Amino acid sequence: MSVRANPAVIGAFVVGACIVLVAGLVLWGGTAMFKPRLRYVMFFDTAVSGLQKGAPVQLRGVRIGQVTEVQVRWDTPLIAVYVEFDPSVLKGVPQGGIDSAIRAAIQDRGQRAQLRMQSFVTGVLYIAVDNFPGTPIVLRGLDPSVPEIPTVPTTIDVWTAKLEKIANSLAALPLDELARSMISTIDEARRILKSPEVARSLKSLDVALAESRDLVRHADGLVTNVNTQVGPLAGDARASLQSAQAALARVPALVEDVRRVLAKVDAHAEPLLTSLQKTSDTAGVTLERAQVTLTGVDGALNQDSPLGYELIRTLREVRELSRSLGSLADFLERNPDVAVYGVRRPVVKDGR
Length: 352
Hints:
Radius of gyration: 60 Å
Distance between the termini: 142 Å
């Protein structure tokens, strides 16, 4: 006869199993169920093949959340991707909360969302949140109940657009006409190169090059000769310059001697004038006596007499000599170095 099961035992077993299940969830990651989540939406205008529910959302390589839902917006080219951020990963958030920090990052640092490929082999995609300064903020506003993060095109899309633009530009070019023009240009260039005029020009060029080499050799020889002659000339010029400098160095000493002579003349001028004054008084008495004598001498020194004629000619020569000495003194005063160099001074080049 079979034994009937006790309902109380069965109930206790079920309750215990539930308790063990809840404890396992708490111990092995079930606590995530009770963590707060931040939900955001992103709109992409490109295909999201390879993006699946549960795909990671990374901020500079660190996983901060996951994709919770992917939707197609009918009658629009947009794909809505809903994500959830884990607040426990975002540390050091400024006062005001994570939402305020994300909005400030979008405005100030250009934070945007972008689709990126996890593996080129599998083609699996993930969402990267990074800074793209200088990019425009494009908000679709199709789901006002959830905060929106603006997006930017993927790198592949950017290069695809560039390649398409280049391809369109190439397609617009008249390639056939360019090819025909290039072929005709090459044929014309080949004909010109094979013409006898070009051959004669090349021969003339060879002759000109040979003459140029000879000219260069002659110029080298001339430069060598000039170098050999410049050395002695430079030595002579240097010696002459040193002699001139030595002579000019003696000029201040000569000037000083002249000054001393003038000082001595000034010192003896006053006694000489006094002596002349006394002599003039005595001369007054003697003058009367000499007048009688001069009357007799006057007759002897008359211009008609031979002695008078010779005396007048001698006085004229003395006067001319005095003028010449005065001109010589003025010239020496203006050119004190004429005693060293003579009338023709040497020409000093390069300031030496």
